[in-house]
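Field notebook, page 255. I keep forgetting to write these up properly, so this time I am using the form the group agreed on. The chain and the ligand, nicotinamide-adenine-dinucleotide, are recorded exactly as supplied. Prediction of the bound pose follows.
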Amino acid sequence: MTSVTGHSDDLSGRTALVTGAGSGIGRACAVALARAGAKVHLVDRDAESVADAARETGGTEHVVDLAAEDPARDLPTEVDILVNNAGLQHVAPIHEFPPERFTLLQRVMVTAPFLLARHVLPHMYQRGWGRVVNVSSVHGSRASAFKSAYVAAKHGLEGLSKVIALEGAPHGVTSNCVSPGYVRTPLVENQVADQARAHGIEPEQVLADVMLTRHAIKQLVEPAEVASVVLWLCGAHSGHVTGSTFTIDGGWTAQ
Ligand code: NAD
């Protein structure tokens, strides 16, 4: 199946919906998809940042809390490309982990992707074409201490992605995960600044000695690099790529 106009990255005629589109990786995905010609719906709970991202991309913003009971209710069903990207972290040992935070991470990173897929798959099936891209993490296949909710959610998202791939296959719908190591986003930059203050060391040293110890390449991944893999997965040359995971982790999982 080729794209509407035949160019590999030309998404004109397609409609995309990106969650967590106000910041970081989600915003980079929205920009890349819009540049490729897709009409983009940007979903985020942060009204200010999603409005700003919508201006940048010429897309339509939707202020939605994905942890809500029915986050898909007011979102469009006519979506050809769904990027499940919104996420958050909470770090604590299991015996001190607040149960409500554990539930919140599952709701935003597993239940909402399920509900959104459920919402848009009928349209994709009807058109005989669709792309679901789930922004997972190295933590979709590896564990780190104190990240029980995040690791459980990302493993769950990887499983959900594979089931969507199997069910979508007869309908021209693919589903894949993109799984980064540490990416230069506000989330991570704040952690770097905090760690530098806490340890009394330079931010570069925090990256090399604290955060990037498991990356063979001692640099943060850029959001645009993640977005370019997402874009490729939505293009004309990836129709047989489904149920897969693409790690972008500077060599972390090679070890
Ligand atoms: P970010 O904090 O920069 O952006 C996340 C966005 O999601 C924010 O705009 C936030 O408002 C939105 N969001 C969070 N909870 C929401 C909710 N309940 N409803 C609606 N929107 C909500 O983070 P990022 O680093 O760009 O992360 C994006 C995705 O990439 C996440 O799923 C994260 O787990 C994943 N990821 C990030 C990294 C990294 O190093 N930054 C690494 C691997 C995976």
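OBSERVATIONS:
- Residues 1-6 have pLDDT under 50 and may be disordered.
- Residues 99-127 form the longest helix (29 residues).
FOLLOW-UP: compare against the apo run.
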